[in-house]
Amino acid sequence: MLNPEMIGKIVQIASVLEVSGYPKPGNVHRTRDYDDMVFEDFLISGIVIGDHLRHLSKRTIENKDDLSKIQIGKAVYDAVTETNEWIENNTNLGIVMMTFPIGAAAAISNNMEELRDNIGKIMAVSTVEDAIYLYDAINIASAGGMGDQDEYDVTSDKAKEELIKNNQTLWDVLKISAPWDDLASELTSKMPIIFEFSYPIYSELRVNNSLNKSGVLTFLEILQKVPDTLISRKYNDEVASEVSVKTRDLLKYKDLENFEEYLHEFDNYLYDNHLNPGTTADLTAATIMVYYINNEFEKTN
User: Fold this and answer.
1) Residue 107 CB neighbour total at 10 angstroms
2) Which of 64, 95, 60 is nearest to 79 (CA)?
């Protein structure tokens, strides 16, 4: 079991390493700012969330016999609220949503099997209050993903009343969103993309590659396999699939000495066409976090 201080450090490291990936096509990175957010915004927001995951991890240890009491929704809300005090735009809602259940589970787990199982348990016993806090966090971050839907529309003034009336928990509302949001899908299915696909890839890459190359290639491997659902929501599934096909073609050149030139070209293409694989970035951050958690498991076992 990892102590909360270590878990807080790991989420900060994972967040900073993800955004530092260079050049990570279609997203903010160390030499690519966007009009509404810049590289430093993500560094700041990655640091800010550490304390909130530490608090959540402590509550998880204290309530390990009743995980419905850990207030995971409040932890997400608190992290997004403080981020909003430092940064004007949504930089980390997706990362917080993905990494906080992982971190909470790490506080009561001894190995990777227990980690994944406890993520499932934490999400399964989430509460209506957790769902309400998530809705508030989404509105603070002005984030897309669960809004503009017929059922429990996050933008509706009556959404929270409907959640309470129908006893809809955090898990319930994420399950509704799962068909069009890979983060919601991961959170309600014990994270198969992370544990079965991207984590093994990142771990293998780290053996003989730099931190930067490992992160960028993992990002690309996820994107070529899983069409980005943020792109799907902004445009359509066909556009997201086209980006995945282009990523698959790009990876054919990954062993060439001039691969970075191809990366820059693809990055420019995505940027010029306003195609932002933001969901893939969140999955990459969660992948890096799982890697470092497992490193700590191996040290103590």
Assistant:
1) 24
2) 95
* CB 49, CB 97: distance < 8 Å: no
Q: Please check the confidence at residue 76 and state whether its pLDDT lies above 60.
A: yes
The per-residue pLDDT for range 204-218, each reduced to its tens digit, is: 999 999 999 999 999
CB atoms within 10 A of CB 277: 28
pLDDT band for position 233 (cuts 50, 70, 90): very high
Statement: residue 153 has pLDDT above 70: no
**Averaged over 107-129, what is the pLDDT?**
98
Return the H-helix or E-strand segment holding 140: helix 128-141
Q: What is the pLDDT of residue 14?
A: 98
Read off the tokens for 205. 């890459």
Question: Do 124 and 170 contact (CB within 8 A), yes or no?
Answer: no
List the alpha helices (DSSP H) in 1-92. 4-20, 39-62, 72-86
How remote is the C-alpha of 254 from its chain's centroid?
A: 25
Q: Is CATH 2.40.10.340 what the domain over 4-300 is classified as, yes or no?
A: no
Spatial CA neighbour of 220 closest among 235, 234, 202, 236: 202
SS3 content of the chain, % helix, strand, coil (to 5): 70, 0, 30
Please give the C-alpha separations between residue 128 and each of 142, 171, 180, 189, in angstroms, as whole numbers. Answer: 21, 9, 22, 19
What is the rounded distance in angstroms from the CA atom of residue 252 to the CA atom of residue 245? Answer: 11
pLDDT for residue 143 is more than 80: no
Cα gap 93→82, rounded to integer Å = 11
Tell me what percent of the residues of the chain surpass a pLDDT of 70: 95
User: Which residue do the tokens 């992160």 mark?
Assistant: 215
Nearest to 24 by CA among 252, 257, 200, 250: 250
